């Protein structure tokens, strides 16, 4: 196994001042690492695209579904689990996960909000037929009058399987958003101070 860093400068198609470079650390076979990296780049470009924002729900579903391993690859009693900060925190199976994801995008786009996602840092680990991606993200949305806007950090774990045709598809993801400017989120120092006040 070997590791290398990949830097892509000036990634476009990101709004709300989310422009910037992506930093990657990768370990595994070079061809597979590049293929997994490409899947992640295309996924982000897809959900940031005007076609995704303006298209009907059926079009968004078709665009998203292209990135996921179909449920038909699993037994009906062993569907993959998807975890995320969506309207349902846990979804069983690709269909439920995509429906849940589309519901959240529908809420944003029906209000004519502009949405953007950026991967700030990504670590890729590739084995035989299996890849794990750990990513730090920035995402946000803004209303047309700019009165409603939100930018937040996030973290994601994505598991991909190599299919028989050589392509990589997502079989699990865990998405989590956190706002480090939220007063309810304690810093390490604040948390340490609060712990010291508690009885041992």
Written account of the structure:
- The protein is α+β, with helices and mostly antiparallel strands and 200 residues long.
- It has a single domain (3-196), classed as Nuclear Transport Factor 2, Chain: A.
- It has five helices and eight strands; from the N terminus they run E-E-H-H-H-E-E-H-E-E-E-E-H.
- The chain has helices at 30-48, 50-54, 57-65, 94-109, 188-196, and strands at residues 3-11, 20-27, 81-83, 90-92, 114-126, 130-142, 149-162, 168-178.
- The strands form two sheets. Strands 1-2-5-6-7-8 form a six-stranded mixed β-sheet. Strands 3-4 form a two-stranded antiparallel ribbon.
- It is globular and about 55 Å long.
- The model is unreliable at 1-20 (pLDDT under 50).
Radius of gyration: 18 Å
Tell me the fraction of residues in β-strands, as a range. 35-45%
Largest sheet, strands/sense/barrel: 6 strands, mixed
If classified by CATH, what would the architecture be? Roll
Average pLDDT, rounded to a whole number, is 80
Provide the domain count. Answer: 1
Low-confidence stretches: 1-20
Provide a count of the helices: 5
What is the approximate shape? globular
If strands are numbered along the chain, what order do they take across the biggest sheet? 1-2-5-6-7-8
What's the CATH topology name?
Nuclear Transport Factor 2, Chain: A
Distance between the termini: 45 Å
CATH class, named: Alpha Beta
Give the class from helix and strand content and strand pairing. Answer: alpha+beta
* Helix fraction bin: 25-40%
Task: List how many beta strands DSSP finds.
Answer: 8
Elements, N to C (H/E): EEHHHEEHEEEEH
């Amino acid at each position: 196994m070997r590791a290398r860093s990949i830097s892509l400068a000036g990634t476009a198609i990101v709004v709300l001042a989310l422009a910037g470079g992506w930093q990657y650390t990768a370990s595994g076979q070079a061809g597979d690492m590049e293929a997994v990296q490409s899947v992640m780049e295309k996924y982000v470009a897809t959900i940031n695209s005007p076609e995704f924002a303006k298209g009907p729900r059926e079009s968004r579903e078709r665009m998203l579904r292209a990135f996921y391993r179909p449920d038909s690859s699993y037994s009906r009693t062993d569907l993959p689990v998807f975890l995320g900060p969506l309207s349902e925190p846990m979804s069983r199976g690709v269909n439920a996960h995509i429906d849940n994801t589309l519901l959240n995008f529908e809420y944003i786009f029906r209000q004519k909000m502009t949405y953007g996602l950026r991967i700030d840092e990504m670590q890729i680990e590739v084995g035989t037929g299996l890849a794990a991606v750990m990513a730090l993200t920035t995402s946000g949305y803004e209303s047309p009058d700019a009165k409603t806007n939100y930018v937040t950090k996030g973290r994601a774990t994505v598991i991909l399987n190599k299919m028989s045709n050589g392509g990589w598809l997502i079989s699990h993801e865990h998405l989590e958003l956190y706002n480090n400017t939220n007063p309810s989120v304690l810093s390490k120092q604040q948390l340490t101070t609060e712990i010291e006040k508690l009885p041992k």
